[in-house]
Amino acid sequence: MSAGGGGLTPEVAIAVIGVLGVGAQWIAWRLQMPAIVLMLAAGLAVGPGLEWLVPARDIGPLVEPMVAIAVAIILFEGGLTLNLHGLRDAATGVRRLVILGAPLGWLFSAMALHYVAGLGWAAASVFGGIMIVTGPTVIAPLLRQARLSRRPSVLLLWEAIVNDPIGALAAVLAFQVVTVSAAGGEMWSALVPLGLRFAVSGAIGWTAGWLVVQAFRRALVPEYMKVPVLFVAVLATFVGTDLIAHESGLLAVTLMGIVVANSDLPSFTELRRFKEHATILLVSGVFILLAASMDLGTLELLDWRAAAFLVVVILIVRPATVLLSLLGSGLPRNERLLVALTGPRGVVLVAVAGLFATKLVDLGIEDGARVVPLAFALVAATVVLHGFTLAPLARALGLAGTDAPGLVIVGGSRFATALGNACKDLEIPVMVTDRNYTRLRGAREAGLPTYYGDILSEATEHGLDLVRYGVVLAATENDAYNTLVATDLAPEFGRENVFQISRAQEQSRRHALPSTLGAQPLGKGMSYLELSRLMTEGWEVKVTRLTEEFTLDDWRGRNPEAFLLGRVDGSGLRLLADGAEFKAVPGVRLLAMVPPEREAAATGGH
């Protein structure tokens, strides 16, 4: 376990980083809090706190290249989420946040660093460029947790991902100016070649993405090798471009990801999901690694001016940057306010800040030593603040879904309309979708929200705002389509939140679909035809409220033929599979299929 000087061996250190990072993410999920807060605390505890993990000692010179490669893959995965079809009415806002917001943010941040934090102009200009970055690795989990409306969510996500490489390039540009000025050289003689190298780097990223797409589309790469080939292509593009212009590799891999994302590859969904899993591991590892690399002496450089700097950045710099950029954009005021008051920073900011802090110190600029603690303080402050205030702020501005996640019913039928009406009476958002317009007639006449189209189509993905919905029921007459819907949407909604009506009993095992496909069956496990028959016979979806006097056993005693479909409690709607166990405390409301002769027994009210 020890490595000469009493530290950890590299393999043990990497294992510790992995356990702490993924463990922090899992605990944060259980506690419904921002994961990056726990990762920061864990890294500081085992690093500068207890000195169990000291990356420079335990891993050595591999720390910097490991962080660089991890950040490159994180940005590539971010580029994979940027499908141009998803912009729609948010395109103007995104362009303004990138074209106007990036330089304004750079200017205002540099001014705050100089006049408030007390850094010299050299360090302030470099770190100010890095502060353009708003952190996609932090924004994405916060958006999932807050369930924002589609347009502000798109604005925040695109700004974070696109501005990540721009922030790194701004830092490179500023550092180049500082280096040339320190050497007494001509500024333009250095900037023009630098700009040309960046242009070449962008072209390399686009070309690499195009080549990957062509190779995959023409079946030049077998299916089982696509993910390895993609990984190797990303690494080669990043390293090769960095040889042309340092830190320009981040721009190249981001462009590469955008090209792949907009190529309509049949295997794109599988590629992106695998990359998302890899990104979770990399984000965890990088943040633990960087936090553990801090030392107490560096943290002591934070003073009252650092605290004042944080206040100015959060309350003045960020709002001023966004509001000026979106002035005259036509976006509603509340959406502009939400974006202006949301600017968390994450892993990329800390990683790039750490790299340039070392370079500034090597140039003899002592202020460079304060860049890393300021970066960590900014990340911690913004993540904690936005992690706990984004959802309440979005609700206050009318830009978030209700507290109770709603239900999407795929397939219009009498049963779907009855279940939708019951949810509507409980004030639970519900939407009925179908590819056949006629089948939605009953839901429309009942006043339920409907969507005519295929829930799996790309147009639906970019045109239907699903932020209010957290539960899916596939209930069409087509068993294979139900299975496809459940299998496709399970990773997005969570498998515990996706149900389907049971497939018709197969006469032969050779006709049965694998149990690994689809989702858990709803209620008693009845098929579409069986549910339709019950509706024809007069069965209804009823709501019953449990009390101290009327328990679940009482309900079952009075309704021996009825069967449960779901329950509603303080956490919202939960559909139930046959035999599912749950805590039937007073106040829980039951959704059940009740036969006509038992209607009078379903007492307890709504």
Any overview of this molecule?
The protein has 606 residues and is of the alpha/beta class. It is 59% helix and 8% strand. The chain contains 24 helices and twelve strands. The chain has helices at residues 10-31, 35-49, 55-58, 63-80, 91-99, 101-115, 121-130, 136-146, 150-183, 187-217, 226-244, 249-261, 268-292, 296-299, 304-325, 333-340, 347-362, 371-396, 414-425, 441-445, 458-463, 479-493, 528-536, 552-558; strands at 2-3, 7-8, 406-410, 430-434, 450-452, 469-474, 498-500, 520-521, 540-545, 563-569, 572-575, 589-594. A six-stranded parallel sheet has the order 5-4-3-6-7-8. It has a four-stranded antiparallel sheet with strand order 9-12-10-11, with helices on one face. A two-stranded antiparallel ribbon has the order 1-2. Strand 3 (406-410), helix 19 and strand 4 (430-434) form a beta-alpha-beta unit. The longest helix is centred in the N-terminal third of the chain and has 34 residues, at 150-183. The model is unreliable at 1-5 and 598-606 (pLDDT under 50).
Write the layout of secondary structure elements.
Elements: E1 2-3, E2 7-8, H1 10-31, H2 35-49, H3 55-58, H4 63-80, H5 91-99, H6 101-115, H7 121-130, H8 136-146, H9 150-183, H10 187-217, H11 226-244, H12 249-261, H13 268-292, H14 296-299, H15 304-325, H16 333-340, H17 347-362, H18 371-396, E3 406-410, H19 414-425, E4 430-434, H20 441-445, E5 450-452, H21 458-463, E6 469-474, H22 479-493, E7 498-500, E8 520-521, H23 528-536, E9 540-545, H24 552-558, E10 563-569, E11 572-575, E12 589-594
Parallel strand pairs: 3-4, 3-6, 4-5, 6-7, 7-8
Antiparallel strand pairs: 1-2, 9-12, 10-11, 10-12
